[in-house]
Amino acid sequence: MTSITHHPTDETLAAFASGTLDEARSVVVSMHMSFCPVCNNKARRYEAIGGALLDRTSPAAMKPDALQKVLQLIGTDLQAPAVKPEGLLDHYQLGKWRWVWPGVRQRSISVPVVSNIKVFMLRAEPGIQLPHHKHTGYEWTCVLEGAFEHQFGRYGPGDFDEADETLEHKPTICEGAACVCLVALQGNIEFQSGWGRLIQPLLRL
Protein backbone atom coordinates (compact mmCIF):
# COMPACT_ATOMS: atom_id res chain seq x y z
CA MET A 1 0.00 0.00 0.00
CA THR A 2 1.16 3.55 -0.71
CA SER A 3 2.60 5.26 2.37
CA ILE A 4 0.13 7.62 4.03
CA THR A 5 1.70 10.99 4.80
CA HIS A 6 -1.28 13.26 5.57
CA HIS A 7 -3.37 12.59 8.68
CA PRO A 8 -6.11 14.24 10.76
CA THR A 9 -4.90 16.45 13.58
CA ASP A 10 -4.66 15.01 17.08
CA GLU A 11 -7.55 17.30 18.06
CA THR A 12 -9.69 15.78 15.31
CA LEU A 13 -8.86 12.22 16.36
CA ALA A 14 -9.62 13.05 20.00
CA ALA A 15 -12.97 14.57 18.99
CA PHE A 16 -13.74 11.49 16.91
CA ALA A 17 -12.87 9.17 19.81
CA SER A 18 -15.04 11.17 22.24
CA GLY A 19 -18.01 11.11 19.87
CA THR A 20 -18.24 14.90 19.57
CA LEU A 21 -17.70 15.05 15.80
CA ASP A 22 -20.77 15.32 13.60
CA GLU A 23 -21.68 12.28 11.52
CA ALA A 24 -20.46 13.82 8.26
CA ARG A 25 -16.91 14.45 9.42
CA SER A 26 -16.88 11.16 11.36
CA VAL A 27 -17.54 9.24 8.13
CA VAL A 28 -14.50 10.81 6.45
CA VAL A 29 -12.26 10.28 9.50
CA SER A 30 -13.44 6.65 9.71
CA MET A 31 -12.51 6.17 6.08
CA HIS A 32 -9.01 7.46 6.70
CA MET A 33 -8.64 5.21 9.76
CA SER A 34 -9.59 2.18 7.68
CA PHE A 35 -6.46 2.88 5.63
CA CYS A 36 -4.24 4.10 8.47
CA PRO A 37 -3.33 1.84 11.43
CA VAL A 38 -1.40 4.71 13.04
CA CYS A 39 -4.48 6.93 13.39
CA ASN A 40 -6.66 3.96 14.23
CA ASN A 41 -4.39 3.15 17.19
CA LYS A 42 -4.29 6.80 18.26
CA ALA A 43 -8.08 6.97 18.32
CA ARG A 44 -8.24 3.79 20.40
CA ARG A 45 -5.81 5.34 22.90
CA TYR A 46 -7.95 8.47 23.14
CA GLU A 47 -10.95 6.24 23.79
CA ALA A 48 -9.05 4.51 26.61
CA ILE A 49 -8.12 7.87 28.13
CA GLY A 50 -11.75 8.93 27.97
CA GLY A 51 -12.78 5.70 29.68
CA ALA A 52 -10.26 6.25 32.46
CA LEU A 53 -11.54 9.77 33.02
CA LEU A 54 -15.09 8.47 33.05
CA ASP A 55 -14.15 6.02 35.83
CA ARG A 56 -13.10 8.97 37.99
CA THR A 57 -16.35 10.88 37.64
CA SER A 58 -19.15 10.72 40.17
CA PRO A 59 -21.71 8.00 39.41
CA ALA A 60 -25.00 9.02 37.82
CA ALA A 61 -28.39 7.37 37.92
CA MET A 62 -28.94 4.80 35.15
CA LYS A 63 -31.99 4.61 32.94
CA PRO A 64 -34.64 2.12 34.08
CA ASP A 65 -34.01 -0.22 31.12
CA ALA A 66 -30.18 -0.10 31.31
CA LEU A 67 -29.80 -3.51 33.00
CA GLN A 68 -32.16 -5.17 30.53
CA LYS A 69 -30.18 -3.82 27.58
CA VAL A 70 -26.90 -5.09 29.02
CA LEU A 71 -28.37 -8.54 29.70
CA GLN A 72 -29.53 -8.72 26.08
CA LEU A 73 -25.94 -8.25 24.96
CA ILE A 74 -24.63 -11.21 26.96
CA GLY A 75 -23.36 -13.80 24.53
CA THR A 76 -23.09 -11.25 21.75
CA ASP A 77 -19.72 -10.77 20.10
CA LEU A 78 -18.87 -7.19 21.03
CA GLN A 79 -15.55 -7.24 19.20
CA ALA A 80 -16.01 -5.09 16.12
CA PRO A 81 -14.44 -6.64 13.03
CA ALA A 82 -11.85 -4.72 11.09
CA VAL A 83 -13.74 -2.49 8.70
CA LYS A 84 -12.66 -2.43 5.10
CA PRO A 85 -12.85 0.89 3.26
CA GLU A 86 -15.45 -0.36 0.82
CA GLY A 87 -17.76 -1.38 3.67
CA LEU A 88 -17.88 1.94 5.53
CA LEU A 89 -20.59 3.38 3.29
CA ASP A 90 -22.85 0.32 3.33
CA HIS A 91 -25.35 2.05 5.62
CA TYR A 92 -25.83 4.96 3.24
CA GLN A 93 -27.53 5.35 -0.11
CA LEU A 94 -25.19 6.42 -2.91
CA GLY A 95 -26.49 8.63 -5.67
CA LYS A 96 -25.67 8.36 -9.36
CA TRP A 97 -22.50 9.91 -10.71
CA ARG A 98 -23.32 13.28 -12.26
CA TRP A 99 -21.33 15.86 -14.21
CA VAL A 100 -20.09 18.91 -12.28
CA TRP A 101 -17.06 20.05 -14.33
CA PRO A 102 -15.29 18.77 -17.47
CA GLY A 103 -13.67 15.51 -16.36
CA VAL A 104 -15.16 15.76 -12.87
CA ARG A 105 -18.16 13.85 -11.51
CA GLN A 106 -19.86 13.74 -8.14
CA ARG A 107 -22.18 11.34 -6.36
CA SER A 108 -24.16 12.13 -3.25
CA ILE A 109 -24.06 10.08 -0.04
CA SER A 110 -27.15 10.05 2.17
CA VAL A 111 -25.47 11.19 5.38
CA PRO A 112 -27.99 13.43 7.17
CA VAL A 113 -27.25 17.09 6.43
CA VAL A 114 -26.60 19.02 9.66
CA SER A 115 -25.17 22.55 9.90
CA ASN A 116 -25.03 22.76 6.09
CA ILE A 117 -22.58 19.85 5.87
CA LYS A 118 -22.91 17.45 2.97
CA VAL A 119 -20.97 14.29 2.16
CA PHE A 120 -20.21 13.14 -1.36
CA MET A 121 -17.70 11.31 -3.53
CA LEU A 122 -15.76 13.21 -6.17
CA ARG A 123 -14.08 11.60 -9.18
CA ALA A 124 -11.66 13.56 -11.38
CA GLU A 125 -9.70 12.38 -14.39
CA PRO A 126 -5.87 12.43 -14.51
CA GLY A 127 -4.21 15.72 -15.45
CA ILE A 128 -7.18 17.95 -14.59
CA GLN A 129 -6.53 21.10 -12.57
CA LEU A 130 -9.50 22.17 -10.50
CA PRO A 131 -10.25 25.90 -10.44
CA HIS A 132 -8.60 28.12 -7.84
CA HIS A 133 -11.06 28.20 -4.97
CA LYS A 134 -11.69 28.51 -1.25
CA HIS A 135 -14.54 27.50 1.06
CA THR A 136 -17.04 29.25 3.28
CA GLY A 137 -16.61 26.46 5.84
CA TYR A 138 -14.41 23.41 6.07
CA GLU A 139 -13.63 20.65 3.57
CA TRP A 140 -12.37 17.30 4.86
CA THR A 141 -11.21 14.86 2.20
CA CYS A 142 -9.98 11.27 2.22
CA VAL A 143 -8.48 9.92 -0.99
CA LEU A 144 -9.81 6.49 -1.99
CA GLU A 145 -8.08 5.98 -5.34
CA GLY A 146 -5.58 7.88 -7.46
CA ALA A 147 -3.97 11.08 -6.19
CA PHE A 148 -4.05 14.88 -6.30
CA GLU A 149 -1.57 17.53 -5.30
CA HIS A 150 -1.57 21.18 -4.28
CA GLN A 151 0.74 23.53 -2.40
CA PHE A 152 0.81 21.28 0.68
CA GLY A 153 1.94 18.14 -1.11
CA ARG A 154 0.71 15.00 -2.81
CA TYR A 155 -2.33 13.13 -1.49
CA GLY A 156 -2.71 9.46 -2.41
CA PRO A 157 -4.94 6.60 -1.19
CA GLY A 158 -5.73 6.99 2.50
CA ASP A 159 -4.35 10.52 2.80
CA PHE A 160 -6.50 13.03 4.68
CA ASP A 161 -6.81 16.71 3.74
CA GLU A 162 -8.26 18.89 6.51
CA ALA A 163 -8.99 22.33 5.04
CA ASP A 164 -11.00 25.27 6.36
CA GLU A 165 -12.15 28.69 5.19
CA THR A 166 -8.62 30.12 5.46
CA LEU A 167 -7.22 27.90 2.70
CA GLU A 168 -7.15 28.73 -0.99
CA HIS A 169 -5.97 26.03 -3.40
CA LYS A 170 -6.22 24.67 -6.92
CA PRO A 171 -5.63 20.91 -6.76
CA THR A 172 -4.19 19.08 -9.76
CA ILE A 173 -5.08 15.44 -10.38
CA CYS A 174 -1.94 13.33 -10.73
CA GLU A 175 -1.31 11.31 -13.86
CA GLY A 176 -1.94 7.58 -13.98
CA ALA A 177 -5.47 7.03 -12.67
CA ALA A 178 -8.65 8.90 -11.87
CA CYS A 179 -8.74 10.34 -8.37
CA VAL A 180 -11.73 9.33 -6.24
CA CYS A 181 -12.24 11.09 -2.90
CA LEU A 182 -14.71 11.07 -0.04
CA VAL A 183 -15.53 14.64 1.00
CA ALA A 184 -17.39 16.34 3.85
CA LEU A 185 -18.07 19.93 2.83
CA GLN A 186 -19.57 22.66 4.97
CA GLY A 187 -21.00 25.68 3.19
CA ASN A 188 -20.01 26.42 -0.38
CA ILE A 189 -17.05 26.54 -2.73
CA GLU A 190 -16.06 30.01 -3.90
CA PHE A 191 -14.02 30.32 -7.10
CA GLN A 192 -11.35 33.01 -6.92
CA SER A 193 -10.64 33.72 -10.59
CA GLY A 194 -12.87 36.04 -12.62
CA TRP A 195 -13.62 33.24 -15.08
CA GLY A 196 -14.45 30.83 -12.26
CA ARG A 197 -16.85 33.30 -10.63
CA LEU A 198 -18.49 33.90 -13.98
CA ILE A 199 -19.36 30.23 -14.55
CA GLN A 200 -19.97 29.25 -10.92
CA PRO A 201 -23.79 29.65 -11.18
CA LEU A 202 -23.76 27.01 -13.94
CA LEU A 203 -21.90 24.39 -11.88
CA ARG A 204 -23.08 21.94 -9.23
CA LEU A 205 -20.39 22.48 -6.61
Q: Can you give me a brief rundown of this structure?
A:
This protein has 205 residues and is of the alpha+beta class. The chain has helices at residues 10-18, 23-35, 37-55, 66-73, 194-199, and strands at 98-101, 104-108, 117-124, 133-135, 139-145, 148-150, 153-155, 160-163, 168-169, 172-173, 179-186, 189-191.
Task: Provide structural commentary.
With 205 residues, the chain is of the alpha+beta class. It is built from five helices and twelve strands. It has helices at 10-18, 23-35, 37-55, 66-73, 194-199; strands at 98-101, 104-108, 117-124, 133-135, 139-145, 148-150, 153-155, 160-163, 168-169, 172-173, 179-186, 189-191. A six-stranded antiparallel sheet has the order 1-2-3-11-5-8, covered by helices on one side. The protein has a three-stranded antiparallel sheet with strand order 9-4-12. A three-stranded antiparallel sheet has the order 7-6-10, with no helix packed on it. Helix 1 (10-18) packs across helix 3 (37-55). The longest helix has 19 residues, at 37-55. The chain is globular, with a radius of gyration of 20 Å.
Would you spell out the secondary-structure blueprint of this structure?
Elements: H1 10-18, H2 23-35, H3 37-55, H4 66-73, E1 98-101, E2 104-108, E3 117-124, E4 133-135, E5 139-145, E6 148-150, E7 153-155, E8 160-163, E9 168-169, E10 172-173, E11 179-186, E12 189-191, H5 194-199
Helix pairs in contact: 1-3, 2-3
